[in-house]
Amino acid sequence: MDNTQRNSQALTKRIDVSTAQLAQRFENIIALAPISAPERNATAIDAYQLEVETAALIRAAEDILTLTRTLKEIWLSGQLDTIGESKFNERTERAARGVLEALDKVVSNKGESLRI
Q1: What b-and-e string marks burial along 33-68, b requiring 16 or more CB atoms within 10 Å of the CB?
Q2: Which of 54, 85, 100, 114 falls 20 to 30 Å from 78 in CA-CA distance?
């Protein structure tokens, strides 16, 4: 995977495409499930289409497994470019600083009361 694919937007897009493809293949299999005609040729065509869709479904699932492995490798190597891209991270950081300041005040007030 090249460096342009290692940011959160590209990875999110890849996840969306993979899951959409998996769902579409599953829908195609479900659509082929009812027996359309008792003719031998129609049944053979439906069976072949079912095999093709099943192979595509398996391939889509393997793509998702490959993606999860790639995400793990990127995360473990520290190359996942997600720091600073999320408002949630900023909110969490501000809340953590607020808790730290409040804790410092409590500790400093207890220290003063112990000195008296």
Answers
A1: eeeeeeeeeeeeebeeeeeebeebbeebeebeeebe
A2: 100
Which of 17, 37, 15, 13 shows the shortest CA–CA distance to 25? 17
89: number of CA atoms within 13 Å, CB side? 5
pTM of the model: 0.60
Place of tokens 């808790």: 99
pLDDT tens across 5-45, in order? 667 788 888 889 999 999 999 999 998 888 767 888 888 88
Tokens 């095999």, located at residue = 51
